[in-house]
Amino acid sequence: MAQCVQSVQEFVQDSFVPMVAVLCSEEAERVTRKNNLNFAELLRPFCRLTSEGHIRDPNNQVQAVKNLRICVNNVVTSPNTVSAALSPAQRRLLNEVVLSCQPQEGAVTSVITAGDYDLNFSATTPWFEAYRESFLQSMPASDHEFLNHYLACLLVVSSTEAVPVEQFLKLSQEQHRIQHSGEYTNPKWFIPNTLKYYVLLHDISEGDEQRADTVYEDMKQRYGSQGCYLLKINSRTFSTEDDEQIPDPWSQYLHRNILHNQDILDDLTVNSAAVENSISAAEVDCHHPTEKADGLSNSLENHPLQLDTASSPGSLHTASAVNTDLKKGARDSESIAGGAGSHGACLTLNDHDHIRQFIQEFTFRGLLPHIEKNIRQLNDQLVSRKGLSRSLFTATKKWFGGGKGPEKSITEPKSTCGLLYPPEAPELQIRKMADLCFLVQHYELAYSCYHTAKKDFLSDQAMLYAAGALEMAAVSAFLQAGAPRPYPAHYMDTAIQTYRDVCKNMVLAERCALLSAEILKSQGKYSEAATLLIKMTSEDSDLRSALLLEQAAHCFINMRNPMVRKFAFHMILAGHRFSKAGQRKHALRCYCQAMQVYKERGWSLAEDHINFTIGRQSFTLRQPENAVTAFRQILTNDSRQTATQQGAFLREYLYVYKSVIGVNEVSLPQLPLPCIHSSATRVYFGHERRLAEGEKQAATHVSLDQEYDQDLAAMWCHLEEQLVAAANRGIVPANFQPTQCCLNSQTDNLRHPLAVVEEPIIVEVTFRNPLKVSLALSNLSLLWKFTADDAPPSKEKTAEKLAGEAITNEETLALGVGNMTQKDDIVTTETILDFHLGPEETKMARLRLLPHRTGQLNIVGVVYNLAEASSGEMALNSDGQQTVDLMVVRGKQDLMIRGPRLNQTKEDKMLVRHGPDRRLDPIITPSMPLMEVFFLQFPTALLCGEIRKAYVEFCNVSSVALCSLRVASTHPDFFTFGSKATTPLTPLSPTSAENCSAYKTLATTPQPGSVASEILVSAEDFSQLSSVMEIPIDGNMLQPGKSIQLPLWLRGPDQEGVHEINFLFYYESTQKGNKLSHRVLRHTVFICASRSLSVQASASRSSVPPHHSLDDKGHGGTLVFIDVENINTSESGVREFHIVQVSSSSQHWRLHKCINPARDKDCKLTSRERAKLCFRATQCKPLQASSDAVEKYIFADLNLGNERIISSSTPCGDFFFRCCLTSESQRVDVASSGHPSSSKSQGSVPSEDRASDITSIVKKCNELDLNIIVIWKAYVVEDNKQLILEGQLHVALQTIGKEATSLTPKEEAQEMVLLKFKSELPLPVVLPSAELSQLIKTNLHYPETYTHPFVQDSLCLVPVTLSLSNCSLAQVDVIIDLRHKSTSPESLEVHNSFTWVGQTQYKLQLKPQEVLCLTLRACFLQAGVYNLNTPRVFAKPAKQGAMCETSQQTASPALIIINNA
């Protein structure tokens, strides 16, 4: 239970106090009425005694009576019988008491930490204490106990009466009549011989003091000095000392009596059973009362109209109430209501002391002695009977009429409590004595009497009496000083059960429970107290149930181990019952306290219920802001409610919201629905791309439909860097920022993005509907703030206002769609009229702004109308437009984007800090050019190496001229615009170019054995060999509104498959100095490349001896073999390939002529066919190559068909140079990455140098820098039409004897290498034998046939000349060995009858490029065919140390035929 102001002992003592009745003469009533009070009210603040009283118990022991309080009430008679319930008026009073006592604003709250809960709630519950106090005062008096029966009666007469003694006599007779006539069941009197105490009231301001003293003396003679008193009051008049502030101790006792009086008046006059504040019917039938426990108001007694602490409930009070109390009561209530704070106006502080003294005199000299005397009398009666045995005692009672006689019928069941004792029954005398002892704090004697009475009652089955005795026995046991015995809680439990179940008296049961719970709480037994309180809740009274459940909740939280969830659960139950009882504020408070436990703990359904209730209660209590907050919680959390429930929540929310907005029209409120994923917001700057128009295909650029890809973004940024560097003389400026047209959560948003005036800004906002019901959004638009840079001079006033001042469109949007034109001259805001979100749907809305001025724009949020989709439709069907409007609210949501977490400094790492995200804060810059690019006749599929001509169109769609048009690409070898020097003049208007060749051709007739035609070209003519190309447009500028079309040659990639090819077009404004230095446009194409031809080429030295092979130019030749295979798969519909021409390009070599057999004029290849071509290549004259510049290339064309293609012009030359460049760069990359790191030799440095020397010598010797271009045509049948495709393949021959291919080799996966833990010694540098074996070229010269007469001469000697040519530029040591070493059977077979004679081993040294001839002799023993190519030649560079020689490659077999003559 909650903490109370009083201690438990004070509370229990004050629950049972001696009762004193008051009867006043009319004159006396008039005297007190001056103070706005009646006599009982006048005494009330002074009823607690400040000093100790004493009485003697029957054993003559003195007992101290401390802190005693008496209760003084006017006599109100009532003829009704006792009821077990409170009257509707009393119930209404209790309801009002609780309603009027609310928690104070800023009251002290206690914070309890239980586990991981931090709960903040009020530790005290004053409304419960007020209810309890009021309940205990309105307890109806009953016959089974005497505690609230009157012990004494004050008879009050004014000294101004003519004969005061006569008035006293009248009043005395009146009291006797009320008590003994039997007409009235109420009020009830304790003892037949009630103490009468005579009070003479003297008004000092009016009356004659001497007369008063005289009358008082007479009274003392007549009634004894112990039985009368002269009370002087009203020392002050209104006229005098008006300004003196006299305290008003009455207000705290009377503040509730206004209600009280009014209710009882209602009851008396109308007997109305209606209860305000929607108390349920069940409550009206039987409402529960409450305890009282207020430190200040603990002596608050019943209001003046109530006779005992409770007149019997529901009864009509007698109309002839004594001294017309009723009318006075009505006057009281009016006067109290009228003159608040004016009580006791005629009293001085001395008068207060007089009253206090009077109460003390009355109690100590009148009341306590009277009680002591009665205790003695009762004790004597009881002791005199104790001599008799119990059985005899019972028998005599039956015989002499002391029993329960006529009331008890034989057929009555044992369980009833209808058994009644007559007033003089001995059991009741014991009870009466116990009650008297209890009232004067003699708890030990009271306990023994209650205990005795309890046994008697139980044996008689008088359950109501027994329950009362049990209850008071338990309380007496608790209150005994020094606690000689433990508190018997089971007594209380039995009493409660009996009252409730047997006697059906909830009022007594409730009193019992309130006392017991307070006692249990004081002993720390919170669990038992909570159980008891929860048992007392029932359907008959919501108010009682609510208060008790709330106290039970406080018990759970105050336990040693607080039970937080039980606290919350019972708070919810209490809130529910408060709500039913019409106590909305208390209900709201309970729900709010419980919410602390359930919030954000995963109890989503409980949270929803609580929030919904809080919302409703707040709304009815006119706290719409709190209501909105609560409903917002329900709707924003991911609710697990059903769709219908969510729909109900939403409708309720919209209704509440509507009322809030009605109050506050100026700024738009924040709406909780739908959820906005702020970080997913994307911002797009510029126009959305146009789609293809007819044949034209627009550049893809960037659109909101594309997914963002980090790698792609890096690639585009790299391309843009290349373009910017090309435009800035090869340097990327320090302030370079890559262009970002579309910003999202992954882009770099630390800087303000730049937007261009008169170009739209599109914001894509992601909405999520968390509910299972559809939402209808309408009039959806962006909310912005704009600060202008400088205003146009034409509009002077607005200009001044605009510069530097932020303008927003919120007010415009708040009013709806009607007036949206107002701010359109600054920024045009587009509105989406209808936006529908299905249940749990996530959907994007694209909202546009069009800025018309330069400045800083901040996109703040979105504004829209929110409605439930279904409700709108239903309302439309039934009642037209009006009802729809009711459920539509207009509001906004802010777009708050949190930037990336900072992680740079130590502070950043320690704390959680976020950087800015400025994607919604663009700077609007002045006009910039805007270009669109269209592609015509652009293919989607090509054969590998196929050349195709397409067209590209550039349009300037802005109002500013553009210049410096460039393009960069990820595949620069895929396309070319041609260069001005080499571009053939082709018509610009594209026609259906089925047979128009993309190449520049000359008609020729091929002569057999004709020599290649040569052209010398400088590589600088093809100036655009870097990855950035300048686009050749006239005047290097494109005017506003103009467009230009250019040819574009494409070449299919060499590798088959789908290729993603990216173009980035770059252009600048002709007006410099803008924040945007340039703009770019992206285009991505996918090309599917299918296989065409495979070309393999190899070169070998001609075996013709040098002096024979000298051609007209006097240079030795090299043979070039080209294998061409058709590897095309039949799907692409290619019928056959024709090899039209083979060209070469090199700085040092050229193809000289074709040495194929002459009949193979045209080379056709159908599927999987292969052709072999053979050419002679010769070295160019050194002069010719280096005459103008080193970078001159010789193109040599050998055409196999009827027309010659000029390979040095566009597009053939462009693609040749582009492919060379890319392959070279790849080779460089491989070389740089492929060097093993551990290739340093252990030897000394010179050996390394030497090795590298030798390597270069050897490489030079075998170097051949010849590039072959194979040009082909393919015949394709498509849609019954034959198309001719053409293309070219490139092969780069680098070394003699090494095969090269046009197919790019597939990368092989690296083999796994075993881990080695010991570093191995690096092997010494060994030059590859393959390269060393090319140092010396050998030729044998001999007659092809030789005839010898073997008959005459058995030995045939044939002279053979061996010529050795040093191919390198270094001296070479050569060893020639003629001895046979071969052991293979074939070689033995061939060589068995042939041998070299003469010197069989030679050691020679050849100078660089020297040719040496040796004459050898071969000896044959018989005729036959012999292979003379058996000499083994070893060579090594002369400078190389002791390294072994390398066997030189020998030419093909040299066969000789020996004939017998």
Descriptive account of the structure:
This protein has 1461 residues and is an alpha+beta fold. It is built from 36 helices and 57 strands. The strands form twelve sheets. Strands 12, 24, 26, 28, 30, 33, 38, 40, 42, 44 and 45 form an eleven-stranded antiparallel β-sheet that branches. The termini are far apart. About 13% of the residues have low confidence.
Strand % is: 25-35%
The helix/strand class is: alpha+beta
Number of helices: 36
* Total beta-strand segments: 57
Overall shape: it is elongated
Give the C-alpha Rg.
Answer: 60 Å
Q: Quick check: average pLDDT?
A: 78
What are the segments in which pLDDT stays under 50 over at least 5 consecutive residues? 262-341, 388-416, 791-803, 817-821, 871-885, 982-995, 1109-1115, 1185-1189, 1233-1248
Largest sheet: 11 strands, antiparallel
Measured as a percent range, the helix fraction is: 25-40%
Alpha-carbon distance between the two ends: 143 Å
Domain TPPC8 second Ig-like: 944-1081
Domain TPPC8 first Ig-like: 705-943
Domain TPPC8 C-terminal Ig-like: 1335-1436
Domain TPPC8 third Ig-like: 1084-1291
